[in-house]
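Notes to self after the Tuesday call (sharing in case useful).
The group wants a holo model before anyone commits to mutagenesis around the pocket. I volunteered. Ligand is 2-phosphoglycolic acid. Logging inputs and output together so the record is complete.
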Amino acid sequence: MRRPIIAANWKMYKTIDETKQFIQNFLPKVSNIYDREIVLCVPFTSLYIASEMLKSSNVKLGAQNMYFEDKGAFTGEISPLMLKDIGCSYVILGHSERRKYFYETDSIVNKKVLVALKYGLTPIVCIGETLEEREQNKTFNVLETQLKMSLSNLSSLDAEKIVIAYEPVWAIGTGKNATPQQAQEAQSFIREKYAELYGSVVAEKVRILYGGSIKPENFKQIMEQKDVDGGLVGGASLEVESFYKIVTCDKK
Ligand code: PGA
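Result:
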């Protein structure tokens, strides 16, 4: 049985005060949930306060990006060492917004994945096709290439530890989520490829999340799919009530 993960991706939202308020209200509501992992991926400036507040809780902390060197003259960057030091367990890597606006390539993502693992951070590696690629029937090709290149030189042991997020680009922030069938189809394909690359035991263990316009109303059906092991939630994770409903959506 794979333990689900529900991760919030706050993107470039929330000041320190807003972070505090969210966590104060959110923590008591989820304090007895242990059958799934709950992760908050907050902006860099909120990591410290979030880390202090989540310390003895069941909610884990994540960052949304990092650089692939542990230190050095890289103005404006944040290293895996720093993320570890501040209390992160997770880091989102290769999000489509990073690929699109900050020109991240699969090979950069690959460097980041390897170094994150070296420092004991669990990467949440995002892959997904654009609308154009889907319409041209290239979805599987794109997923396979992104998977293979982002995870190059990974040992089977490490391949088991990382988390994959299938995030169709056309579904991110658009209000147009993938149907449960579309998510299942893509995610079972990813698991199949994983089995080819790292063997079926690893493929059965790796957790594959869905991301893209998740809402309390649509997530239950998506979560019911065999190869969906949780969600990476953007917009709907910014409000305590909606994120709480998503975290608990299949519990009612
Ligand atoms: P969204 O974002 O839920 O707002 O579509 C998801 C993501 O970008 O991870």
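Two things stood out.
The chain has one domain: 5-247.
Residues 9, 167, 172-173, 211-214, 232-236 surround 2-phosphoglycolic acid (CB under 6 Å).
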